[in-house]
Amino acid sequence: MKAAGLMPAAHLFTHDAMNTTFSLRIREVDEAFARSMARECCNQLDLLESHMSRFIEGSEVAQINAMRAGETLYLSDACHQCLLLALNARTHTGGLFDITLGSRIAHRKSGDSGPEPPLAGRLALHPDVPAITCETPGREIDLGGIAKGFALDQLQQLLTAWGAHDALLAAGASSWLALGPSAWPVDLAGDHESIRVHLTNQALGASGTGIQGNHILHPGGPDAMPARPLTRVWVIAPTAALAEIWSTALMLVSPEEIPDFIAGNPDIAAVYAEHDGHVLPIPPSTTP
After folding, report:
1. What is the DSSP letter of 139?
2. Which residues of the chain have pLDDT under 70?
3. How many Cβ atoms from other residues are within 10 Å of residue 195's Cβ?
4. Are 149 and 203 in contact (CB under 8 A)?
5. Which of 9, 39, 116, 171 is the most buried (most CB within 10 A)?
6. Interatomic CA distance for residues 104 and 218, integer angstroms
7. What pLDDT is recorded for position 210?
């Protein structure tokens, strides 16, 4: 997936974080001011990664994954907000979006052909205090795509505070966020063709098996996966975090069930999926 047809006046900045390359395209400001904005955004990305990456020793997520029964960890506001979003998403997706599958994700990515690690343990996130308690150990958090989407939403707030009003932000090829009144064109690339969508104050999240392989796991185990799952899903939503949440969740839904699944969902503006190399929209069901 790539941004297409960008105006030459957009100032482009890139920064590596969270195992991907973030890009910022900012228009309607001079280059020096745009560079100052981008510098603040890069610092914010590094700070968020230091809190939320399970692979950084001493990060909040790494500490959560090492907690013993009865221990409580106080969190940064950003990490707490991201975990609350993920917890709410688990409810709204009927349990399909689950950030506590870290041990199984690591097992899948390692190529181990043995049985998946059993899911055990329980974490309790405090809703009104930035803290989390380990009731029983065993669950491992992997924020994955929601961390990237959350980061883009945080950058949007930062840029808005700086007075930016026309920008396109991206986290690799999986998450895009448009800020301002302009319609930013983005191409959704299938194996045989692509289609162009335009984002105006919207986000686009993408999930699939083409880049990282079959790393999206069903919380119910392999037997709960659809018989013929989609290879790619794109979701347009109000925020980048929601776009990431729903693009991941819909990878775990049978293609035939998606129209009913998304009907009446205010978090989803549009859904696209790849079928036999072609990218097609999936409209919500109109059946009551």
Report:
1. -
2. 1-8, 110-113, 210-215, 287-288
3. 15
4. yes
5. 171
6. 10
7. 56
pTM over 0.85: yes
Cβ partners under 8 Å of residue 49, min gap 6: 17, 18, 56, 59
Q: Count CB-CB contacts under 10 A for residue 227.
A: 5
Task: Tell me phi and psi for residue 205, to 5 degrees.
Answer: -115, 145
Phi, psi of 13 (to 5 degrees): -135, 145
Domains and CATH numbers, the chain: 1-288 (3.10.520.10)
* CA distances from residue 230 to 165, 175, 182, 240 in whole angstroms, order as listed: 36, 18, 31, 21
What integer pLDDT is reported at residue 110 of this predicted model?
Answer: 67
Phi, psi (degrees; rounded to nearest 5) at 17: -165, 155
Q: What is the mean pLDDT of the chain?
A: 90
Which of 87, 69, 66 minimizes the C-alpha distance to 135?
69
Looking at residue 229, the DSSP 8-state letter turns out to be -
Alpha helices in the chain (DSSP H): 31-52, 60-65, 77-92, 102-110, 144-162, 240-250, 258-262
125: β partners:
132
Closest CA relative to residue 119, chosen from 141, 87, 94: 141
Query: What are the structure tokens assigned to 170, written together?
Result: 């991206």
Structure tokens at 243: 């776009």
* Side-chain-side CA neighbours of residue 68 (13 Å): 0
Measuring CA to CA, which residue among 26, 24, 74, 15 is closest to residue 49? 15
